[in-house]
Amino acid sequence: MVYQKLSSGFLILEESPLRNYYKNLIEPLIWFSLTEKISQQDYEETRPDDSLAFSRIKEEIQKIADEQADKIINEGNNQAKEILNAATAKAQQEKSNILNQATTATENIRIQEVSRKKLAIKMDFLKYRDEIFQEIQIEAKSKIQKYTKTAKYKEFLVKLVENSSLSIGGGKLSLVVRKEDQSMFPKAELSKIAEKVSKQTGNKTEIQISKDELVSLGGLKLVRSDQKLFVDNSFEVRLERNTDIIRTRLLKLLS
Q1: What is the dihedral of CA 81, 85, 86, 92, to 10 degrees?
Q2: pLDDT digits (tens, 9 = 90+) for 67-125
Q3: For a FRET experiment, which of 13, 104, 194, 195 has its CA 20 to 30 Å from that of 72?
Q4: HEC states along the chain?
């Protein structure tokens, strides 16, 4: 705040909101004291009371100071509230983020645990299924071994030779069977089968026992003389061909 002292003894304010107010109040008296020739007595009578003027100025200055102080305080309080609100909001957001992260982490752990248990159950199931399948295979082979010692096996094998010959289309064929099964196919039996195949295929058919022996639980192999076609109907191969069917049925049973 800047004050200017006049020759009259009065002070006026420069660059102040009160300047115009006090200018209207004091300036007439200043100009009067400078331009009029009056007696000291008249001057004393007309001169305004300095103490009163200064008192009013002081009051106005104090009022403005109080207003400015209140404004600054209010702005400070508002800023403090804004800072507090922002800090509170940030803290709430951080809290929410931490809770969300904790919830997500917990959910991830739960999902991982469930997945681990599911995988363990699946592995146990697959192991159990394979064990059952192996048991089925062992049981099947045991029954086949018993079956090859019955009269029905001979009937089955003769029919299997006929069907295998038809699938090749007849011609000169070599029959490979187990050593113990060769006695089931004397020349008369083979000629009888060949005649049937010839009639059905229209291709002259001859079947003879191969010098090779079939290493198998049973069944046969039939090879055309040019070695370009053959049929493998050994029991192991037939079991292998049925593996997918057996596994599928087993899966349905265990589901």
Answers
A1: 160
A2: 766 666 676 567 656 766 776 777 677 777 777 777 787 888 888 888 888 778 777 77
A3: 13
A4: CEEEECCCCCEEEECCCCHHHHHHHHHHHHHHHHHCCCCHHHHHHHCCCHHHHHHHHHHHHHHHHHHHHHHHHHHHHHHHHHHHHHHHHHHHHHHHHHHHHHHHHHHHHHHHHHHHHHHHHHHHHHHHHHHHHHHHHHHHHHHHHHHCCCHHHHHHHHHHHHHHHHHHCCCEEEEECCHHHHHHCCHHHHHHHHHHHHHHHCCCCEEEECCCCCCCCCEEEEEECCCCCEEEEEHHHHHHHCHHHHHHHHHHHHC
CATH superfamily of this structure's domain 148-254: ATP synthase, E subunit, C-terminal (3.30.2320.30)
Residue carrying structure tokens 């006049």: 6
| Residues 64/70/73/78 CA torsion (nearest 10 deg) | -120
**How far is residue 44 from each of residues 29, 49, 96, 208, measured CA to CA in Å?**
12, 9, 78, 162
Whether this prediction's pTM lies above 0.85 is answered by no
Neighbouring-strand partners of residue 3 = 13
Report the distance separating Cα 79 and Cα 71, nearest Å. 12
Q: Where are the domains of the chain?
A: 2-77, 148-254
Q: Is the dihedral of CA 231, 248, 123, 142 positive or negative?
A: negative
Give the whole-angstrom CA distance, residue 132 versus residue 128: 6
